[in-house]
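Pasting as-is:
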Amino acid sequence: MSAFNAETFGVIAEKALKLMNVTGAAVSVIEDGEVVFSGGYGYADIENQAPMTSGTILPIGSSSKAFTASSIMMLQAEKKLDIDKPVRDYMPSFALHDPVASQNATLRDLLCHRTGMPRHDLLWISWSDVTRAEIVEKRLPHLKENKSFRSKWEYNNYMFAAAGLLIEKLTGKTWEEFVSERIFAPLNMTDTSPQTPQEGKPAATLYKTNKETKANEPIAPIGLSAIGPAGSIQSTVDDLAKWVKFNLAKGKAGETELLAADVYANLTKPNIPYQLLPIDVPENVGLGYGLGWFVNSYRGEKMVEHGGNVFGASALIAFMPEKNSGVVVLTNQDSTLATYALAFAAFDQLLGQSGKDWPEFWQEKIDELTKKGEEQLDAFKKDVKPGKPFTHPLDDYAGEYDNPGYGKLEIIKTEDGFDVKLHSETAKMVHKHYDIFYVELHDMPLQGSFKTGFDGAIDSVSIGFEPAAEPVEFKKI
């Protein structure tokens, strides 16, 4: 008899959706290698009152990384590469800003986030039509690191984009073609696609909470082509249950071995300590980052997992190898931790643990982080020296600027100040004092400043597009 109680779990799920303001969630539970539950809660589309189901297609975001890591390990098994040899041995065009990392970074380094480079995500977010090759071969070498090579875990999507580009160079197939042929097809994941949902399939509408009204409003999907190997897969919990079973079987699809067990073992072996969220969860202790997977100890049991967040959707895929069990949670809600609340509640049932109120726990943590963030933002905005205007005539600031990593940036004079335009993203410049300002992009206030050359003219503008690294400098053209 299954330890999972669908009725009890349903009560928890409905509470999570209401308390955490989530439009809809789909969940699949695997126990002893078999699916014991697959279903949906809430809505896939509010306007049409379409219910969320286990067959609703949703983005899985960074949960895609494990597919890319498995693809790389398939090439390792075929001796087309060695994950512990420098990437440049196979792709000479690969380079990073840090020369030590450029020469020595291996695929293991890329797939476990230990190159020392932070996210720099605003580059791909703002540049929707940039190609993977452009990002990896032309822009990546100019994005600055903030940690020394192999010294600390620094999450970075471009490393997986580079791994995807390498797959293409070694096999002649794009990452999209490779992952479809080598993983989706043999696992019979017929509703899964590497980019946009398949035409005619039931895809969910994606939602983000309006900060003022607290209502969930539709949000357009974002293009992820350039960094597809890091986060573009679309799937259902029914299909992802097959993926979990493949991982529980250590590389087998039924009786067919897609990846030898000894090669597969690299994927779930911790390589480097990590910290993803500033939240202490006593029941869940991080052991390290594997290859495209977080490896944790949940209530004393090894748990392998990876979440995913893209605009309007949050996901979590998790499994316990020794228990031969796993949980998949997909939502059509922007940046929600309800995925962890539901997954932990399901695992507690499978482990026979007394029910901790995970929706209450995670909502309390969200409230704490939100309050802290609001206080920091308020202090940031108040840090102004009144009566200190720009140092030059306003026309001197307008124009085009360039950075070899981020590309062109425009400072556009308007009736009431300036706009800052980076590719497809435009934000209002908020002046603070002298030549200091900030722009607010995707709910992040990013400080900036203009620099004057020796001739007295405006020479450059620097903006903190990557908050974890030094500001990005754009030279005036």
